[in-house]
Amino acid sequence: MARFNNVAVLMGGVSSEREVSLRSGQAVVKGLGEAGYAVTPVVLTREAVDGLPAGTEAVFLALHGGYGEEGGVQADLDRLGIPYTGAGAVASRLAMDKIATKRCLEAHGVPTAEYEVLAPDATTTHLPLPVVVKPPREGSSVGISRVMQPAEWAPALALARKCDPEVLVERFIAGREMTVGVVGDETLPVVEIIPAGGWYGYEAKYLTGDTVYTFLDESADGAIEARCRELAQQTVATLGVRGLGRVDFRVDATGGCFVLELNSLPGFTATSLLPKAAARAGWSFSELCARIIETAACDAPPTAGT
Does the annotation count 252 as an active-site position? Predict the structure, then answer.
């Protein structure tokens, strides 16, 4: 039996991922409505919780980036005492910061690609090419480049620094790209991502429509499937994430699995990977939305003086 009936879906915001968020939010509104919830879409135009209708029992967060994933909206909802989907404020800040995530994973023995953090005035890396250059606090592949040749280095650095003066440089792991969704205590089937151009950047995710998404053959890749699902659960626990998350991996030629990052509020667009994995597990989109909203929770706000 559902714990909640009146649900608000927060979407939009002011981050670079606003348009993706709007598409996610519209899909979730439809899915929750089909599941029998009374749903109110709320489009944010600033970094504040605005427009929640009276009687809202829980909030489905369809925000991406910025205020939605850096802990801001979570802290505001905690103060209001309104349950919401996904990680709490502290875990959200940790998962959104790729540098902090890498350090946390390293400290807990979770395999991740070798990396270097470049200060705002740094212009070179000690890592050999090929590498991936990332702004550390963006999502949806915004500002990310793969650098295969020396001539690509300066443009990649400049692109990343449009988002953040500090830059994360990561060893590029040749091999396969995979992702694993986690909803509540359940780990979903592993999705393999095969972009037509060989690189899963922003255009391959949202614009070109020629990326192939497939599922592993248990007879050929059973060990990889099991390892990725195991590491997904370990990553969620290590970062303190609850409710839902999606863990991204690279898998090398030997079958070694390396965690890239955790997305604490994954997308719900037509091309999003969590819904694809849920469908593979036999869940309809409306069932997925219902399962997620029923994990909604909030943290107690800090007491005075703490």
Answer: no
206 among known catalytic residues: yes
Of the residues 145, 263, 264, 272, which is catalytic? Answer: 263
pLDDT tens track for 176-214:
999 999 999 999 999 999 987 776 766 666 665 678 899
Catalytically annotated residue among 140, 145, 264, 272:
140
DSSP string spanning the chain?
--S--EEEEEEE-SSTTHHHHHHHHHHHHHHHHHTT-EEEEEEESSSS---PPTT--EEEE---SHHHHSSHHHHHHHHHT--BSS--HHHHHHHH-HHHHHHHHHHTT--B--EEEE-TT----SSPSSEEEE-TT--TTTT-EEE-SGGGHHHHHHHHHTT-SSEEEEE---SEEEEEEEETTEEPPPEEEE-TTS---HHHHHTS---EEEE--HHHHHHHHHHHHHHHHHHHHHHT--SEEEEEEEE-TT--EEEEEEESS---STT-HHHHHHHHTT--HHHHHHHHHTT-B-PPPPPTT-
List pLDDT tens digits, range 73-120: 999 999 999 999 999 999 999 999 999 999 999 999 999 999 999 999
- Concerning whether 291 is annotated as a catalytic residue, the answer is no
- CATH for 94-112+174-291, options being 3.30.1330.60, 1.20.1600.10, 3.30.470.20, 3.90.550.10: 3.30.470.20
Catalytically annotated residue among 37, 115, 200, 206: 206
